[in-house]
Amino acid sequence: MSLNRLTSRYWVRIGAMAATVLTLHFSAIAQDGAATPAPADGAAAAAPAPAAGGGDAVAGEAVFNANCKQCHAINEQVVGPALRDAHKRWPSDKALTEFIKYPQKTIDGGNAYAKGLYDKYKQYMPNHNFLKDEEIGSVIAWIKAESAKPVTAAAAPAAADGKGGAAADAGAGAGIDSSFLTYILGALVLVLILLIAVLGLITTVLTKYLNNNENLTEADKEYALDAPNYKSFFGSKAFLFVVTFIFTMVVLKAGFDKVYGINVNTGYAPTQPIPFSHKLHAGTYEIDCGYCHTGVYKGKSATIPSVNICLNCHNAIKTGSPNMQKLYKAVENNKPIEWVRVHNLPDLAYFNHSQHTVVGKIECEKCHGAIKEMEVVEQHSTLTMGWCINCHRETVVKTEGNAYYDKLVKLHADKTNKPMTVENIGGLECSKCHY
Amino acid sequence: MFNSRPQKFAKSFAVFATTVAMAGLLASCGQDRNDTGIEYAPQMYHTIPYDPYSQVTDTSSEYFNTNRLNPGGTNMRKPAANTVARKFYAGTPRTELAKTVMIYDNLIADSVELSGRILKNPLVPTEALLAQGETLYLRYCSPCHGAGGAGDGKVAEKYKGVPNYSTGRYATLPEGHIFHTITFGKGRMWPHGSQINPEDRWKIVMYVQKLQKGQS
């Protein structure tokens, strides 16, 4: 029996084991992934429940969706109270209709229940006197029909929405969750280390066995037991040359990279006083860059938003978060939040945002990268002079609809039929940026 | 001699592991994302005059140029109360718009109905202005109000209570009312006067009036 065969058989078994472990791992992951969205699907399928009630209620739902839905829901408090059984809280449908048409008049008129509502919600509902009595009647009919449905069934769509959102969040999390990946990697490394240890043990055992085995031929013995001659290999000139060569190259490369990296802050992603996510705000919620960075189409600086802009939404959203408390404290103490500036252009170079965004019509992402996917903003471009110049050489001036360029375009067209780039209108002159 | 192989194996494995660990350590040196790295010729990089967002926090540094006299270390100060911007004060205003700005400065936040009656859009609608209005609307309003003004923006899913422009009373609101609402906010909407200047507000009003009629 030869050693070769023994080890190879062993390898096959180890391979099979590893494959089994891996398959188990990944099937578990796959099941997790498949399992989470399933309940949401089920609930969504159940959502379009058959509408109970007459045609009146159906018309009422349309009126409700157009006029009331923004502030009211049947089962949950939105801006105003939940409307389940609202008709039972009023003496008659007529009184309720009157209240919907003129809430402020009813409240100030001394209706105790209406006054109680105002004290609780601290605002008047706008007058809805533009709605016809029949329309309000149909909304009340719809509220009655909805209220008659049991809470669980009626609440299902709302709950499904909530759950669906949560499941989607969880799904997205599992897809990218780095801690989970780390665990898998850790487990794999552990398996590999175990493998090495086991193989080492086996080699020891087998060597011992062969040492004690008297029946080996000389050739077999030489093959199995002779240690390879490391000394002559590592001592050889060729080996030394290769090692020295690789080492020098690596050191040179690292050195040049370091020197070229001086004052180049690509990848700089400082920790901010509040962990603001551009991915969430600009990506998920599709808020335009200019909504917060109000200067970007107006002036030199894109401006970092002041707290009042944050509060346009965060007066109501996530108000309990400790990070929001920093915002409220900033307003209270009249002290701005000190965000850390990410893009630090040296004072020796002039750059103007509006020039590039309005006249040049350049998208923010061209220089700032995939901001909509950045949890923490990092510097995407090098912001070096070479980088600026390169773009000025390649970019064709957007002259269409801009009368300022008319004569320049004509002059340029007389000389050449190449498109007019920023370079052609003086975009490489020193004093354009340095003065 | 017979046991030499496993020993050599262990030794070379140890060397290998150490190398990997060293490489990892070295690589981690350049990974500090809070550090801007080496600075060359800082005299040319830092500003001597006050500059927006120049940010040297070390007070003993020779490049520290934060305005210590102003509250919060900012460069600008709030104008004193009741100050009127000079360009709108003396001489002949350049445009009709500039003339009316005097009125906007004296609007009272809770007089939205009054604004609805007295404020008129000084801009004459043109295709170009409407297009600008649309751009501005999409930038400042659509996150909540939706691209078509139906109150179905992405943010409105969280920030409830956004109306549909083309239904009910909202469809008939006068231009002055919309201008006032952008400036001072109304109901759940907070003031946007600090983000959008009067001229841009009127362009947005122009476009919103189109949305009120259900055109987008």
Description:
The complex is a heterodimer of chains A (435) and B (216). The longest helix of chain A is centred in the middle third of the chain and has 35 residues, at 178-212. Chain A is 60% helix and 0% strand. With 435 residues, chain A is mainly alpha-helical. In chain A, helix 2 (37-46) runs antiparallel to helix 8 and helix 3 (55-67) packs across helix 7 (133-148). Among the domains of chain A are: 3-35 and 177-223, no CATH class; 55-148, Cytochrome c-like domain (Cytochrome Bc1 Complex, Chain D, domain 2); 227-260; 396-435, no CATH class. Chain A has helices at 3-35, 37-46, 55-67, 93-101, 103-108, 112-121, 133-148, 151-176, 178-212, 218-225, 230-235, 237-260, 278-284, 289-292, 307-314, 322-333, 353-359, 364-368, 385-394, 406-415, 430-433. By secondary structure, chain B is an all-alpha fold. Chain B folds into two domains: 36-78, no CATH class; 87-212, Cytochrome Bc1 Complex, Chain D, domain 2 (Orthogonal Bundle). Chain B has eight helices and no strands. The radius of gyration of chain B is 30 Å and the shape is flat. Mean pLDDT of chain B is 80; it is low at 89-93. The interface between A and B is large, with 65 and 58 residues.
Which term fits the overall shape of chain B?
flat
Estimated radius of gyration of chain A: 36 Å
Number of domains of chain B: 2
- Please give the share of residues in helix of chain B: 40-55%
The number of helices of chain A is: 21
Which sheet architecture does the biggest sheet of chain A show?
none
Average pLDDT figure of chain B: 80
How much β-strand is present in the residues of chain B? under 5%
- CATH-scheme architecture of one domain in chain A: Orthogonal Bundle
What is the number of strand segments of chain B? 0
Using the coordinates shown, work out and report the CATH topology of one domain in chain A: Cytochrome Bc1 Complex, Chain D, domain 2
Oligomeric status of the shown chains?
A: heterodimer
